[in-house]
Design a protein that fits this description.
mainly alpha, 2 helices
Length: about 45
């Protein structure tokens, strides 16, 4: 689940998503790589 309008230029919503990814991946570089992919996805 991701928050509505989660793209906020590095703000709290994006940080929350990154923190959740880190909780799963335990790798900062991998979190950044995947987050860049997520940012490129269109809203639904």
């Amino acid at each position: 689940i991701r928050p509505d309008n989660w793209r906020d230029n590095g703000g709290p919503k994006e940080q929350m998503i990154k923190a959740a990814l880190y909780g799963i991946l335990q790798d900062v570089d991998e979190v950044e790589r995947i987050f860049l992919i997520l940012q490129q996805q269109p809203e639904y």
